[in-house]
Amino acid sequence: MPKRTDIQSILIIGAGPIIIGQACEFDYSGTQAVKALKVEGYRIILVNSNPATIMTDPELADATYVEPITPEIVARIIEKERPDAVLPTMGGQTALNTALALAKDGTLDKYGVQLIGADAEAIDKAEDRLKFRDAMDKIGLESPRSRIAHSVEEALAALEHVGLPSIIRPSFTMGGTGGGIAYNREEFIRIVTGGLDASPTTEVLVEESVLGWKEYEMEVVRDKADNAIIICSIENIDPMGVHTGDSITIAPALTLTDKEYQIMRNASIAVLREIGVETGGSNVQFAVNPKDGRLVVIEMNPRVSRSSALASKATGFPIAKVAALLAVGYTLDEIMNDITGATPASFEPTIDYIVTKIPRFAFEKFKGSEPLLGTAMKSVGEVMAIGRNWQESVQKALRGLETGLTGFDEVETLQGATIEEIEAALSRPTPDRLLVAADALRAGMSVERIHQIAKFEPWFLRQMQELMEMEAAVKANGLPTDAAGFRRLKSVGFSDARLAKLADTTEAEVSRVRRGLNVRPVFKRIDTCAGEFAAKTPYMYSSYEAPSFGEPDCESKPTSARKIVILGGGPNRIGQGIEFDYCCCHACFALDDAGYETIMVNCNPETVSTDYDTSDRLYFEPLTAEDVLEILNTEMQNGELVGVIVQLGGQTPLKLAQALQDAGIPILGTSPDSIDLAEDRERFAALITELGLKQPENGIARSAEEAVRVAETIGYPVLMRPSYVLGGRAMEIVDTLAQLETYIREAVVVSGSSPVLIDRYLRDAIEVDVDAVADGDTVHVAGVLQHIEEAGVHSGDSACSLPPYSLRADIIAEIERQTAVLARALKVKGLMNVQFAVKDGDVYLIEVNPRASRTVPFTAKATGIPVAKIAARVMAGEKLASFDLSPRNVGNHIAVKEAVFPFARFPGVDPVLGPEMKSTGEVMGIDADFATAFAKSQLAAFTTLPQSGRVFISVKDSDKPQIIEAARDLVSLGFELVATSGTERALKAAGIPVTAVNKVAEGRPHIVDRIKDGEIALIFNTTEGLQSLKDSQSIRASALYGRVPYYTTAPASRAAVAAIAAMRRHRLEVRPLQSYHHQS
Amino acid sequence: MAVAKAPVQPKGATGVLVLADGSVIWGHGFGAEGVAVGEVCFNTAMTGYQEVMSDPSYAGQIITFTFPHIGNVGANNEDIESANPHALGCVVREPVTAAANFRAQRRFDDWMKAWGRIGVSGVDTRALTKRIREGGAPNGVIAHNKAGQFDIKTLLSQARGWPGLEGMDLASVISATQNYSWDDGLWTLQGGYAVHSGNPDGPHVVAIDYGMKRNILRNLVAAGARVTVVPATATFDEIMALKPAGIFLSNGPGDPAATGVHAVPTIQKMLNAGLPLFGICLGHQLLGLAVGAKTLKMTQGHRGANHPVKRLSDGRVEITSMNHGFAVDTDTLPATARPTHISLFDGTLAGLELTDRPAFSVQYHPEASPGPQDSQYLFEKFVGGLK
User: Fold this and answer.
1) A262, A333, A462: residue with CB nearest B372
2) Which residues of chain B have a pLDDT value below 50?
């Protein structure tokens, strides 16, 4: 059936900011959908508040709304654009929930808009636990025993039916937020209470525990002619009980016979039919009892998901693109399989390799959180690796994680541990449990025993046991001296670095011996068909293909082109995420335009950069020196390697610069030496002095005594930055000698090899980020971003405004001058990010990074100038003069970036901002004035500012002058104020009506009681000193769980008041990004 | 060509695949020791290796499994498609491991050994697949010797001396030798096979065994038929004596043209008698031959569990299990036969029906096992149409 001609325009809803459970994969899916549907001639309207996405690039959709994804705002976009259809299945749970709300409130009917991809009824049926279970009953599929509850009482009644342990799943939340496993009644009540709260429909499912069962997923695609295909099966190595997003998973499933697989296949398709997913991709999850194969359906997602991104990358089948085309009426047989270019998309991919995905966590960033996995997702990113056997793929994945692992490294805390201790560790579902299992095997524990405790399928444990035996042999006998022996080790995935550790030598030596024996990897293609058809698309992975004997077959076939290799950012983590992938993609696009062959190397399956059509050639490989050098070695066998770009993917590729340089590989753009100069404290200080720039006083301490001396010389407050961290506590602002001593005693190791850096902390300074691009001579300042939070809050966590909303013109000019001076001094060719602090009219240089920064996409979206693309071409040798850098829109609008935090996922963690970055993502609010842009940024970051009610204010002394004006405005806007004693006195003295409220320590009812009772609509709470921070933690925690907007800095509080006032003046209007940039 | 030619036997090699073009691919042997000569094909299914190995259509063939981990779910006594093994052996990437499935009763390599089948592991199966894709399925010899003693010259001459599947009537060789009735139904997780679940009053289907997969019989039973299996060489009169309500023509190995020499006249008589007739795979090809169409040897056969076919009546896509190296040439179909299904991979004929007789057939395997069960409706269509 051909595409629909009764619709001309389609609104695609994005997923918004990167949060745990909803990451880059929805940029990948949204981008594919936008591209595919635009090619079909539809007018595409897009809404996504996340500026760091490729999908929001203004040249992609016809009208791109970087606006908050809320039903109200999306309704306004619909009102304005009058799309014929809304595609809600590409933007995760956010898009699905928003679309459902618009269907329920009548907006879609009012404007005659239809949902395509999944209709409201199907979404509801899939997402509503009770309806889903009924649907499963109807088609004869078993579900775990369960009951729905809307209150704790109902939940306790349900518990009688299902028994303990029990799983609590809130309805309509993403990534399992608010859910958990209860082993006792008390725990049960606590989780149910939280779960009811997290569910927008105040509904939880209380479910029979299938803990320890095997978990599988099926990725299904269906078209409107009812053709249904399985793209991929996925098997979780972590048993049921660990959220699939947090589980180590493999594709395809390895432990099902065909008979069982077909049962699951039929069941998956039956689920789609019954739920009514008429077109598109869905994910169905199953639990299987390993003892008897009993199969129960766990859940389904009627949309593309993280798993479908994984399945797409694992098989080469572009699920999102195909799903988008199916949504407009095509059938599977009408869509071509891009990879073969000869067969249709109506088939089931079959693969001849094994894919392993390992999630990456950030528990160390959240002091007070326990690194335990459960049904609520906690991971912030993932790595995928491909090998010709599971051993190769899992070892590649482990080193691709970039957590310092080179393979199955020993768990430090378990060295010398007793069997009892290892057993105890195995019983805890921690992120490194597979490594614990490896240690258990090393300690001689049996596969059966490990299986008994941790429930890992014995097959995987036996495979690991083989690896441990091989490790032991290398430890005992050293490296093999013959090619066959070496190849055997490499073919099961051992990295040179791991072999070096085992053989007690250096990685360089292992590589030398290996190459001497001519043991090199080959590259195989991902072709969707296990070699049955020739693959047109160079999507590749390495393998030490080990025909037991004979020469392996390499399919890389490097071309004779002039080529540039772009190294990606690896797994997402806090501080390095989608922004860097954006930069890498832009480099691919720009260098392709400039006529180069682009070659992408990355291992993050969520990304656009790992789409087979982003670059000319794609290597899905870990970003280690060994893996990258082997790719380069192959690519250099034909054509001309112009160079490698390491500056766009964040720290990951930068860390490889030295190894590449040592190997004689040309590195494009700013020299690694300049990058090093900027990072080397002493060299950099010398440069600053030479340039006559100012830095906050600083010093370096290699002992506790020295730290005290340095701090006293600089003068408090000081910012402490350790190089080795204990207990997840890193940077800290220290105000007194006593605090300093505590910090050194408890938080860090200070020694000759792990010094502590000490800076004067510029209290209440305004921090500024500058993004610039330079060609070695000319410097273009792309954006000056004024932070809203004061210096001291990590720049990645701070909201910021472009252009600056309160900086004087002469200061901006000075900042631009200093930026240019630095860029020239560092001979920057490409991107540069500089952080300044402005205090009392003085500009201090905080940090320079001659590479891509997190803010590059935001700057590009705010200014309309594609800085990342320009930078890539400059790195390849072009001059800035050849680009149009004229300001497009200055004064027309202002853009505000706001960070988004995962605190709700880490109960017990104090949701306070500091020098350590904690945000997972960001949003942009854009409008004519700062206040409105800020209002939009808050809404986009899920903070709904109140229009009336009671505001609680408690600020530190130094903030009191600042807060008075804001308080006055609040009163004139009709808000009632309550404050703790000190703040109350200050406000009263300024003639502002306010009532006092008890601090928590002052007796009940105190402020936390009132927050919990829903009496507080907004909170401004700034603190100074550890004690006050501790005292106020319960305020922030209760605000977080009560979803009360709260601000922990005075400038942000003031901005919030301005935003409330702006929203009072006028409703939030929507405008496409394109209209902002076409006005000059 | 990427597959290595290694004239010197490497140390430790206990298995070898010698192709007629002189290529020698070394590996580790598993399963039975010995030597077997046949056609080397590949199969892309990721599950169901045991069903594949026991599928009689693979008689005379050595299977290269493209999926690297074969043997991972072990072997059991249920997942077999015939009483005797038929594929000669298999070539795999990874060594066979212990089983990871609750239904496993023994290791796959032990099962291979017990069935007298030869395996070679440690082969770059992807490279071998590419070679088959590009050059067609070669004839070859698979050999396993624990002591690593191979006479490559002899093996090569065996490979070269093997006449090839073309012109080979394997169906008659492996067919049942006498009539038997079948009344087991389909497998379920809870109950295993539905033993003795046949309907004694159902329409009588006589199934001609050219190398039949058991799951076809189970499907016929599940669809409500009373089933009698007869040898490939059964005559028209012998079949008619059974008073069939319908005739089923089974799958099977070898060259349809060769088997057709004796099978086609019988089929023609049954068609003329107006008997309803359903054919699968070789049965489909024989039906084609019976109405005057030609069959041809494909350069690259279809062997896997992911093959899409289009049902021409309504445009629906069925994902099917396929295993064939010969096909009915669409261009040679008479006016009284019309295509009902085509392969979406290469457009070859995947199903036909006669316009003047109650007969239809498909090239693929609606009985699945292994593979998707999208097309099981065909059994209901056939049995449901019988009086």
Assistant:
1) A262
2) 1-6
Give me the residue label for tokens 């791109």. Answer: A64
The reply to whether B193 and B298 lie within a common domain is yes
Taking only the tens place, the pLDDT of each residue in B226-281 is 999 999 999 999 999 999 999 999 999 999 999 999 999 999 999 999 999 999 99
Residue ranges for chain A with pLDDT beneath 50: 725-729, 1079-1080
Token look-up 């430090």 returns: A412
Nearest CA in chain A to B192: A259
> Can you give the pLDDT at residue B2?
40
The stretches of A389-457 forming alpha helices (DSSP H) are 390-400, 419-426, 433-442, 447-454
Which amino acid makes up residue A952?
F
Give me the amino acid identity at B306.
N
Contact map slice: B 128-147 vs A, CB within 8 A: 129-130, 133
CATH of the domain at B356: 3.40.50.880
Which residues in chain A are contacts of B300 at CB distance < 8 A? 532
Structure tokens at A329: 């009426």
Of B161, B190, B212, which one is at a domain's C-terminal end?
A: B161
**Residue of A222, A256, A257 to mutate for B, most B C-beta atoms under 10 A:** A257
Does B180 lie in the same domain as B32?
no
If asked whether residues B215 and B295 sit together in one domain, one would say yes
Same domain, B252 and B134: no
Going edge to edge, which strands form the sheet with A597-602? A522-525, A539-543, A617-620, A597-602, A562-567, A640-645
Structure tokens of A844?
């201090």
Question: In this structure, what token pair is assigned to residue A742?
Answer: 């505590």
- Give a yes or no: residue B21 inside a domain: yes
Are the C-beta atoms of B143 and B14 separated by less than 8 Å?
no
SS3 B142: strand
Pair (B174, B155) in one structural domain: no
Whether A41 and A369 have beta carbons less than 8 Å apart is answered as no
* Same domain assignment for residues B90 and B188: no
Q: Let me know whether B250 and B368 are in one domain.
A: yes
Q: How far is A797 from chain B (nearest CA, A)?
A: 46
Burial class (CB in 10 A: 0-12, 13-18, 19+), A764: middle
Q: Which residues of A touch B316 (CB under 8 A)?
A: 225-227
Handedness of CA A729, A732, A737, A739 (dihedral sign): negative
Residue B53: inside a domain: yes
d(CA A443, CA B140): 47
CATH number at residue B56: 3.50.30.20
Gap between the Cα atoms of A532 and A199, Å rounded? 47
Six-digit token string for A4: 């629909």
Distance CA A438, CA A395 (A): 12
Residues B241 and B346 in one domain: yes
**Complex ipTM value:** 0.97
Number of domains into which chain B is organized: 2
- With an 8 Å Cβ cutoff, is A1 touching chain B? yes
Residue among A261, A332, A388 whose CB faces B68 most closely: A388
- The domain boundary, picked from B119, B137, B161, lies at B161
For residue A993, say if its preceding peptide bond is cis, omega within 30 degrees of 0.
Answer: no
Q: How far is B5 from chain A (nearest CA, A)?
A: 7
What residues contact B157, with CB distance under 8 A and at least 6 apart?
Answer: none
Q: How far is it, in rounded angstroms, from Cα B50 to Cα A260? A: 13
- Residue B338 has phi, psi (to 5 degrees) of -125, 145
Find chain B residues with C-beta within 8 A of A390's C-beta: 69
Write down the pLDDT at residue A1080: 42
Q: Does residue A211 contact residue A241 with C-beta atoms inside 8 Å?
A: yes
Enter the tokens of residue A949. 């009610």
Asked whether residue B376 is domain-assigned, the answer is: yes
Domain range for B118:
15-161
B8 belongs to a structural domain: no
How far the first Cα of chain A sits from its last, in Å, is: 45
